[in-house]
Fold each of these.
Amino acid sequence: MASKTQTKPEPTSKPRGGVDCFTEAAECLKVLAHPVRLRVVQLLLHGRFTVGELAEDCQIADNAMSDHLRLLQRCGFLNSERDGRRVYYQIAEPHLQQLMGCVESRFLPADA
């Protein structure tokens, strides 16, 4: 009776890093995990906006929007620029473009 020999799959190399390397990433992804903040990132990928403009689009109070923007800035996602009396926010982290592309393709309707 012929015996079947099974070949072991070739071991693959492990990706670099470990669980402890993802602490900061996890914290920043938690910050993004809010519908208002995702919309803010989406808007800011298309231009710069003031607190009031962002708040109006998201239908929330200016002070609530300021809190959202502060969290996004703390993770290094945004920066701000003063122009006279107005403060404009813009994207500081270029990788957000790819991340938002994944979110939009997965969760937005095709005609949105």
Amino acid sequence: MFRNLPGTKEEDCYGWEIKLDEKSNLTSASVQEYIQYLVRNNPDDMGVLLNPPGNCDDLTWIYEHLCQICIEVNGNDISVLDRSIIQMNEMIYQLKTNKLFSNKLMIPGEAKQLLKNFFKQVYLIFDHVYYNHREIFERFEHMNYLFSRLVLLSKKYDLIHLDDLTVPEMPLTL
């Protein structure tokens, strides 16, 4: 795991490169750090962000992306309603404590339905913000492309039914 030392200047933070390949010793923390590295360096490169490294299975990749999306949503002001914040905290708690996710590197297939439910809940928060607080939505989306990641992951891994995607798609593609 990589860490910034106390006293590190902001411009020097996260100055390392992270690569996961077939030979990497994969851990849940390394997958999460890798996603954070990708988001920090190229938040709009969906071709890279959506594809797990060769030694990471799809459900682990989806799980870690969902955790990262929840962390990023909670850390910003787009959660306009207190209910949304509570909902995000409940999802994070479930993701961290549910027995289906006890081994984050070998998530069972039956966990996909729960992940789909979580993706749908997060999407509905974005849906509300888009239609009721468009300026906040657009400002937030252009900073980190969270909504685009959510939609493209949902499409790639069949997590949200296409008919349920009501917010116009952002111009990013695979």
Amino acid sequence: MWFFKSLLLFCALVLAIEAKERHECEIKHNVTDADWEQMKKGISHLPDNLACFMKCALEKDGVLDNAGKINFDKFNSYIDNWVKLTEKEKTNANNCLKTIAPIKSCSDIQPLYLCLVNSDK
């Protein structure tokens, strides 16, 4: 159950962020339908192209600033609009996200992803 909720959270975040820019970031990072199918099955580590896609999406919509820091107001707005999380899950995700280093490279997105995946623990 936790993984399904976490996967839903991640997918909803990506879809919300990418409503306008999705096509550009998908093309730029060669994200295919097969990549999305892999995500639906559940993965514990993002492949490089999906990590780069997510970083691109978060930057384009201002969730990540120029220094790679998370804009929590923007982030929480997406969460509130797209996924129904308990207060505990929101708190867990935010507390975890506050501990990660700035996201400057695609591989830096992995800790953010893990915070989302593990938000219900």
Amino acid sequence: MKEGEGRRDQQRATQLHTIRLELGRTRDFPQGTPDCGYEFVAPLNAEGHLDFEAFQQLKSHCRVHRFWVGELAQSGALLRLGRDHWVFSYEPGVDDDEPAFKFERHQFRPGEYVSITDHNGETLPFRIVSVEPFNP
């Protein structure tokens, strides 16, 4: 290992966070539910926003786990497909991509909400329930 590599890896790891989203209030779940949601890893800056530069270096670590009552869990990746276009993707191609609405503008803090469009094209609200330092 070259001098400084271990320190850089440690600094990058401290930028990575595990973020848990749970379904907010919807017609089917008037109180929301912890049984539907996502847990994903992403780099955040000090203000809690997605860190674009760190993402470029750390995208191989940016994974997503989708859990949904009555469905099989899915694992995939957080992808940035353009300046303002973030998706959760589970298979090659775009058919299963789930776009995240204005992810680049959100502050990832517990209690805040984000919107994600699911496989069926329905945009749903998700509450951020936790943001923890990534622990590989």
